[in-house]
Amino acid sequence: MGKSGEDPGMIREVTASGSHREVGRALGRQCKDQALRMEKRWRRHIEHTPGMTVDKVVALARQTLPLSEAFYPQYVEELNGYAEGIGLKPDLVYAMVCDLPVPGRGCTDIAVNSNWTKDDCVYAAHNEDVEPYNYKDVAIVRVKPDDEPGFIGVSYCGIMPTVGMNAAGISLTGNALCPNDLRPGIPKMFPVRKVLREKGIYQALKASMPEGRGHSFNNIVSDENGEIYSVEGSATAFDALYAEDGWLVHTNHYLSPRMWRFEDNMHTRFSSIVRYNRAKKLFKHELGQVEVSTFKKVFSDHVGHPESICRHPDPDLGEEDQTATIFSVVFDLTSKVAWICHGSPCTGTYRKYTL
Ligand SMILES: [Zn+2]
Q1: How far is the CA of 208 from the centre of ligand 1 (A)?
Q2: What pTM was estimated for this model as a whole?
Q3: Fewest Cβ atoms closer than 10 Å to its Cβ: which of 58, 105, 112, 313?
Q4: 340 DSSP β-pair partners
C-alpha cells in the first residue's frame, strides 16, 4: 500500500466538488505529487529543446490565455485553483497544459450504439497508449462543479481528462492526431474538458471544436441516444465523421479525405493503421452481441505486437519513445457506469465505477 493507503498497482481515485476554483484546488491537493513529477519532466523536456527556456514557453502560452478565457473561463478557474492546490504559479500550470506532454502516439477507440449491443446499451470505449511511466500520473476523477452535471473520467495529474462521461450521458473519448497546421491558440485540453460540461449532443459537438484552437485531438463525442461522432480536428479545419452504421473505430490518423492534407507525416502512422484495421475487423465480428467483455477481447489483441491494439513497450526503443496501453475504459452511457481496467487490458480486470 502507498502512503495514502492506496494500492500502488491501482490508479488513484480522487473527487472534487464546489466552485471551479474549489474543484481545481481539491484536485491539486490530491494530485500534488503527480503534478510536481509532471513539472519536472516538462522542465527537462524544455531544457533539451534548443533555443527554448521555461520563461519563453510560459510567455508564449500566456498569449493564448485570452482565447482560452473567452472559450471556457471556468476551466481557467479550475487551473488557477489547481495551481494554488499544488503551490505553483498559475502561468506555469497553464503553460504545462498548453504544451501537454501527453497523450502522444497512441490510443484505440470504439463506440457503438444500442442496435448492436446485447443489453441495448450505448458504449464508448478507449485504450490509452502513452509512455509507460505515465501510469503513475493518472487518476480516476469524480468532478462535480456547482454549475455542471458532473463527470467521471481518467485525468493526467487529476486535472487533464483524457476520457470522461457526464451525468447527462455525454462522453468524450478520442485519440491524438499529428496535424501540420499547429499555431498559438486554445490548447487541445480545453475542448476535451468543455465537452464534459455539456448536456446535449449539439452543445457537446460545438464544444469539441472551437475556432481559435491551436491543436486538436480526434474528439469522439457520444450521447446516450447513440449519437456518435468522431470529430477529426486540426488547428484550422475539421470533419465530423458520424457513426452511420451505429459504430465506429478510430486510432491516430485522419480518416476523412478532407483532412488528409493535414496529416503531418503518414510514414509514422503504421501502428495506427494496423490497430485501426484490426479493431474494425475484430469488432465487426461481434456486432449484435456486444457487451463489456467484447471490448476486453478486442482491446487485448496482440497482432502487430508490440505496437498492437494492446500495446507493450518495445524493448528496442528508449524510455521516451516507448508506448504502452496504461489503462482502458468502457463507458456505458445508458447505465452511466464506467468500466476501467488498470494497466494492460490483456492481463487486467475491468472494474465497475459509478458516477
Ligand atoms: Zn497486452
Answers
A1: 31
A2: 0.96
A3: 313
A4: 329, 351
